[in-house]
Fold each of these.
Amino acid sequence: MLVVTDDGPRVVSVSQIFERLSADFRHAALHDSLTGLPNRRHLGERGEALARGNANLAGIAVLYIDLDGFKAINDTFGHRAGDEVLAGFAERLGRIIRPADVLARLGGDEFAILLVGVSEMQALAVADRVVAGSSVPFDCDGNILHLSASVGIAMPGDVPAEPELTRLEALLRHADGAMLKAKQAGKRQVARLDGHDEAAPIARNALIRRRLPSAFETRRFTLHYQPQLDLVSGDNSTVEALLRWTDSELGMVSPAEFIPIMELSGDIHRIGLRVINEVCMQARRWLDAGVPRRVGINVSPVQLATRRVVSELLSALARHGVPPDLIQVEITEGAAITNLPRAIGQLQQLRDAGISIALDDYGTGFSSLAMLRNLPLNIVKIDKSFIDNIDTSAADALLVRGVIDTAHALGLKVTAEGVERPCQLRLLRELGCDIAQGFLISRPVAPDDLPPLTARTPLLEWH
Ligand code: C2E
Ligand code: MG
Ligand code: MG
């Protein structure tokens, strides 16, 4: 075959061309195109090769590395800046390892290092250097970007054999769980799982994180709606939108499990936007069908930390022609509000637009009396854990009465969450609670399965 190259024409045998092409394809299949690093598959192959000569992987350590704050860089400075940071970080990592070690990009902002022939001390020292290396600011076109990395470390002695996984896969998963522990402990640090960390939930967390991208791609998220009952008027037209995810491998995954993971990974912004759009579409359908319903949307403090959520919500309302008073934002309590003045500013903007604001899960997590005073609220939702024993525990009934009276004094309405028994409902009514939500009234259901709108329900007809 005649091939024209930069140096002029050349005759090359067809078999040579095929050899070259197949080498190129093989390289592409085993490497990440952005950084040129080995990919997850390549790492797996190297692990298998190592395990053939060293069945227990003695002297091996795995570091699982995830950049902190990378999503914000992508969102603020664009994907080109993000790519530059990733390539720059890969280069820094390359300078930390030795020739026998394997550095791989696992995808997104996740990297792994397989350290070969190291002691525990040496492995920990490398992990520390990764964190230190990540904390040196990146210069992207004159923008000085501050990031850090969270690193999980696993060594063969830490990890029990798992029948369905290769030794390396088990190590990687363990290191991944340790990385999550580092994130939860405040990021920019190294963590290792010890005997106190239960392996099962950590492995499940890792699995959930692994499955999330495909759940986004295949649009496996849906919304269910749970009605709230107004204890005075009997109105049941307000519902709360609750995420549902059924995964082909994991089955039903509860939002109580995947929302905190999304809060850490930054995926909460993506899913939050989908929820907003889907809720507005559904609210419009109900309007068009002549059965208008108000809808509560759960918004995490992590979403409030960026300034996007207000404009996302207002533009979705405008796009679908949904009046703002049909929306109620529920501030969930899974994460602390890190920037209170900013959160207050954003909630105030929503309130000014006519959207009402509820404080969710009151009594747990980070909620406090100060929140009741400082946030521009309309409604307080008392957490289920206080409602559970309200009919058997005098102390709980007293606490709930205290919250109801305090909220009323501040001009707020009160919703009781997780009402399951008629006697709870009766007592809540006696205590002056305004709204009740729980399985007694209805479970969260698909939009078409909601009970019809009514101002009369047998639940409220006992006197
Ligand atoms: P939440 O906002 O406090 O929602 C109430 C949770 O209590 C829901 O759990 C609901 O199914 C459950 N529940 C309601 N009534 C009863 C009852 O009578 N008995 C019992 N045992 N449970 C009851 P779910 O759907 O699993 O959601 C868990 C949490 O996940 C939510 O708590 C909320 O914080 C979060 N979440 C759900 N959807 C979203 C979302 O779209 N965005 C955000 N940021 N968080 C969400
Ligand atoms: Mg809620
Ligand atoms: Mg709640």
Note: The radius of gyration is 27 Å.
Amino acid sequence: MSIDDLIARLPKVELHCHLEGSVPAPTFIELAAGHGIELKTTDPEHVYDFFSFLEFLDLYYQVCDALATPADIERGVYDSLVHGKATGNLRYREMFFSPTNHSQVSYGQMVDAMVSGIKAAEADHGVSCRLIADINRRQSPQVAVQLVEAMIAHPSEYVIGLGIDDDEATGPPEMFVDAFTLAGRHGIRRTAHAGELGVAANVRTSLELLGCERIDHGYAMTRDPEVFAFARDSGVHFTGCWFVNNFHEGVFTEGVDPATTGLAQMIRAGLPVSLSTDDPTMIPTDLNAEYASVAATLGLDEAAVVGLARAAIDGSWADDSTKATLRAELDAAAR
Ligand code: HPA
Ligand code: ZN
């Protein structure tokens, strides 16, 4: 069996994927048309084209606008999970969503719609999902606190954590201590996008001041030995996104060797790292491609590939019995 065959067979867990970055292009185009949202093109091959991170975020906001009603959101979640299963043998995902980017629905409406989509995808395709509400760091710290208050007022067994995304330069982690502290007091698990394009110090701040148990991305810390040592010693789990990191570090445009990127260094150093797609219909990538490209670039053998898949289960916030099931399924497929 080739490594790629093994990768395709493994039932996978991903911990870093955004609802709004994982809506298949045809679904996005149809929903946008229904709401009179003007797109650059209605060609599904090009509707998600972007050339910079900020352009990507503008497009991401358009997807948020297209997911306007509870019915849109339920469909978006369902189509996203089915796409993950079809392209990457996705078995379980902890999925970010950006409640404060959806102005036409309340937090409670959004969660209820997402849960309906998750239940339908689970029944039809055997793919499970839990949710992480994401703060948009370009909005104010007050909006972030209000989001956490809404999470507390509308608890759901499906919503297991709080995250923060968007542009680190505009919204460094120290601005959001109040929201994360409130979440921690209410037993909500915490993670943060840090060190993606922002400075390495954002990784340390997210751990020390925000109480994060995971870091999303983290690549910048490979350029700061002190932060790197701090994060390594903390044992924190990193959700790595290979194609995103390659995009940011110039692999596609400047011919940078992918074996030298931040994420490549983190994997080689043996940190607790899992692989995820981030925004798989926009990038575009999928879970099989993430694993295959990492394996080929770093020369991983079968045991190392299975080790990456196991790291995702270890780093997840699923309950112990779910983790045991996921491990057993992984072991069975890896034999
Ligand atoms: N980083 C920052 N903002 C985002 C991301 C990301 O990976 N995905 C969607 N919004
Ligand atoms: Zn992300």
Note: The longest helix spans residues 70-88.
